[in-house]
Fold this sequence. Notes:
The chain is of the alpha/beta class. Helix content is 20%, strand content 28%. The mean pLDDT is 95.
Amino acid sequence: MPLSLDDFDYALPEALIAQHPSEERSASRLLRVDRHGLHDETFTDLIHQVRAGDLLVFNDTRVIRARLRGRRESGGAVEVLIERVISGTEALAHVRASHSPREGTRMRLDDAFEVEVLGRADDLYRLRLTDAADWYALLERHGSLPLPPYITHSADDVDATRYQTVYARSPGAVAAPTAGLHFDEALLERLTAMGARCAWVTLHVGAGTFQPVRVNDIAHHRMHAERYRIAPDTVAAVIDTRARGGRVFAIGTTSLRALEAAAVESDAFAAPAASVIEGDTRLFITPGYRFRVVDRLLTNFHLPRSTLMMLVSAFAGMGPIRQAYAHAIAERYRFFSYGDAMLLERSPPDTEPAA
């Protein structure tokens, strides 16, 4: 029987949507979900679930100040959200305006610089700087942090720090890899001191992560594309961890998507890599998917009827996820980007529904 959007729905009290981060990064709660049931813990209890020889894979993407406001030549107001910087002069963007801008339209953003619309690329617009050549510098100077749509306040100085991971170093995301927001330097040091290893991937999270699924039969959904990059040393770390009997922890759904995309699309972990593995992925993970790399997933709570709800249901099992979310709501966990976390054990393959 085909899976539908209703299979991934739940009712969330609005009061449980976290509007601000916890006072300290690692002070959140942690709901552990495994074959023995549900376990209410604190985030620092993660130290007891990681063993020497395990590998933790983090996404080192950095959120850019991607939101800009301005006006068209005709005077109409526009809001631009940069999805991806292609080069020093070109970028792909979402554009909100009273009328869709046509090719050749010019817009002045933040009353500081001008862009020209070169055309469309699916739901995005190709924009070209007309009198400058460094998108990242302009965004840093004139843009604002693009907080998720369910956070109701405008980005402030606290968000500028806390909506980035402490290890963010590769600019390009328009949304944070939120599972990583719980880590501080002290916790990372404790994990490595006990013999766990850390490795890094880069997946630039796009605004598509917040876009609703518009078809009831999820088999007909077309996943948004995201750019990822995995260095040879991360490939080697995964292979070595497997060979030594360690477990691979994906810190966030974005790390999981990068690892699984590399495995599915290029068989990346069959042998050590001679060069960087990179590309765009539209990998859509739903129940029935056979995971190739990841054994444990650390993640936040996700929007109902979203592709990420489908991913975690595929990973831990639809029944356990339904039970976990009902429990989290009853126990008043904090949800979404600034909320609490879950640690999921991968469900055995023979318990997964057929694809």
